[in-house]
Task: structure prediction
Amino acid sequence: MQPAPPYCHTKKRTVNQTRNMEKALSLNNFTKVMAWLLAGITLCFTNARAEDRLPTEEGSITYGGITLPYRIIKTSPETAGTAVLAMYLHGGTSKGSDNIAQMKEPGIDSIANYLTSHNIKGILLVPQCPADKSWSGPTLPMLKALIAQYTDSGEADPDKVYLFGGSMGGTGTWTMLSNYPNTFAAAMPVAANPSRCNAESTASTPVFTVMGTDDKIMSVETAATFVSRLIALGGEVEMETEERWTHEDTCIKSYTNTRLDWVFSHTRIKTAVGETVASEGHGGLKQYFYIDGKPVIGSPTPGIYIGMCTPPNGGKKVWRKVWRL
Result:
């Protein structure tokens, strides 16, 4: 008789030992099945639409022959005072007209949960871009008109309007800042391309932008170059680059409490030539500059200027665009 090969186990088992093993295997299989079921339940919960997790209202706005549906999330309505207004611009895969697809983006939850956990009375608007459009051209005045509906009616504070967006929505955020300076208190575009924006106009709004090193769609270098231009113009800008974050990672993970703290700590600075900056945390207007950076000698004439503001407690100089009202 040839000896059994080393990988073949020839040890005999009793009937009781065999039955015990069968029971153990059955229990193990049951445990595995339950684990799979629980994982499936968790996955379903994680992938549940935001409109199922958060109480929302529906609306639409028609402008220039284009209808834009949107969702409304209201946070801490019992809190006293006028609500802050936030708008989130979704990415390219959420286009359409069902007023549902855009709510799947996790950034919406992050912003809404932040407002709720900090007991901030807020209105979060989540418009849906038509399938044949992007956040550019004719959709921009629609977004501006939608914001005006809430600020002009007094339902939202016009000095506390914040803009967010990732991917196509992040690029749209940059573009809104470029086209409508002095409209927003602060903004947070992530995984975005600002290369077609006007730096002089954009510099009037504080911006926190996030990029990922493994993003194959948007360029870190392009964003960094534009941010450098804003800083040279005196803009208040924060840029963070996350190692090994893909495009999707950046769109999902960027909205941390620390970054949202920074965004929502800002109030729009309203200035006019010859007036003092009235925004919280900033001192008086000390010096005027033309858009090209040259200082204004003597009293400025009506027009658009950059103003240098000094914080009341000293420290780094803060620059803002100055409009004659």
The chain has nine helices and eleven strands. The radius of gyration is 27 Å. Confidence is low (pLDDT under 50) at residues 1-15, 30-51, 271-284, 312-325. Residues 210 and 254 are 7 Å apart (CA to CA).
